Amino acid sequence: MKMSILKLQGPMFASLVMLSSCTSLPSSGPATKAIDSQALVTVSTQDKKVGIDYALVDLSKAITSYFPAPSESSLTGSFGARGPSAAPDIPLGIGDVISVSVFESQAGGLFIPSDAGSRAGNFITVPQQTIDRSGTISVPYAGRIKAAGRSKEAVEKAVEDSLANRAIEPQVVITVVSAKSSQVAVLGQVTTPAKIEVGSNGERVLDIISSAGGITSPSAETTVTLSRGGRTAKISYDRLSDVPSENIFVRPGDTVFVDRTRRTFVAFGASGTNGRYDFEESGLSLAEGLGKAGGLLDGRADPGQVFLYRMVDRKILEKAGINTRAFKSEKVPTIFRANMRDPGTFFATQNFAMQDKDLIYVSNADSVELTKFLDILNSVTSTASGVSGDVADTRQNIRDVR
Q: What is the Cα 152 distance to its own chain's centre?
């Protein structure tokens, strides 16, 4: 705002000079001049400019189309889906603890003695054993049987075939006591981080999170990352809960990491309230962001000067037809300006998605700055007239004493 120089004369000019040189005015700390003058070393730039170049972009229908709400990755798209009932096949693995029971059709065979009538049944149970590092188990008279990487049914059949020439119509039942090879790790913002075994019926991502006690952060700020075989995919917890197809089956060796991603923006200037605000929703538009910050102050704000500060990928700006050759980095400091005096801009702000760490600044109207100056001027002139009155009263009192 440009203002003409006012010619101050008489008591008003004298009061301004007195106030400008006075060091006893109220203050919450040292004056700027004192800080500058007493510094041992001062680092500054020409005209005290920050030196950060930026692009200024007016918000319009054409611009909003290049800044849609950020898309989320998909668990289904990254890892595929096998249908609602297609749980993954979970074979036995190294480290699993199993129990082997062998049944014979009648007494007098390899395992069942002739006095089997005194027994509880026509079977024996081999002591529990762990599938060793070579991936095998040991069954009496059957030798070492390959178990790791095979289904329980396949191992049962292999043991039966090995005993067929020695036992009487052998039947084998394998019971999995502990399936350490089919565990999934659940970490992060859950009640009880742990390794959870995946049952033969299969477990989905939400099942695993539930088994860990559920999430401990607000669902709107929670993301779930699934890591499998060197690949990862991240999805918001709300989308995982709302879209059944994203709740895919986990597999042994998967890692599920639950994280709280606090997305915030900051509002300054002539907005209703200044401060940092949480998104609290998966998506937030500029219009909603202004609403969360209390809107524009009717007595202060300039509706034509609403700014949003953001670091923008230069490739996006180039697609929007903005010349970025003057910028060297891949991220370009960008200020988006919204003219809220234009009724159509309200629709544009509804379609312009906010991003994490955005900064909104609402400028003061020029009339507000003029009012501030006039208030100061008024207080100075009032002080000047007060000083003159005090001097006159003092002179009269002196005369009265004489």
A: 42
Give the model's pLDDT for residue 5.
Answer: 43
Q: What is the CATH number of domain 51-69+283-367?
A: 3.10.560.10
As a dihedral over the C-alpha atoms of residue 363, residue 367, residue 372, residue 374, rounded to 10 degrees, the angle is 170
> Angle 10-21/366-401 helices, nearest 10 degrees?
100
Residue carrying structure tokens 């005993």: 163
Give backbone dihedrals phi and psi of 106, rounded to 5 degrees, phi first.
-155, 165
DSSP 283-341: --BHHHHHHHTT-B-TTTEEEEEEEEEEEEEHHHHHHTT---TT--SSEEEEEEEE-TT
8 A C-beta contact, residue 60 and residue 149: no
- Tell me the chain's radius of gyration from C-alpha atoms: 39
Kindly report, residue by residue over 46-94, the tens digit of the pLDDT. 777 788 899 999 999 889 988 887 777 788 888 876 544 567 788 999 9
- Does pLDDT of 295 surpass 50? yes
Beta carbons within 10 angstroms of residue 387's beta carbon: 14
CA dihedral 393, 394, 397, 398 (to 10 degrees): -150
pLDDT of 20 > 60? The answer is no
75-87+181-260, what's its fold?
A: Outer membrane lipoprotein wza fold like (3.10.560)
* pLDDT over 60 at 232, yes or no: yes
Domain ranges of the chain: 51-69+283-367, 75-87+181-260, 97-178
**pLDDT grade, residue 157 (50/70/90)?**
very high
For domain 97-178, give the CATH number.
3.30.1950.10
Higher pLDDT, residue 318 or 388: 318
pLDDT at 121: 60
Question: Residue 173: CB partners within 8 Å, gap ≥ 6?
Answer: 100, 101, 103, 156
**In contact, 217 and 189? CB cutoff 8 Å:** yes
Distances (CA, A) of 89 to 24, 106, 205, 308: 83, 35, 16, 51
pTM: 0.64
Q: Which three-class secondary structure state does DSSP give residue 99? A: strand
Same fold, 51-69+283-367 and 75-87+181-260: yes
Please report, for residues 72, 117, 131, 135, 289, the alpha-carbon distance to residue 68 in angstroms, rounded to integers and kept in the order given: 12, 78, 53, 52, 15
Residue 209, amino acid = I
How many C-alpha atoms does 325 have within 13 Å on its Cβ side? 2
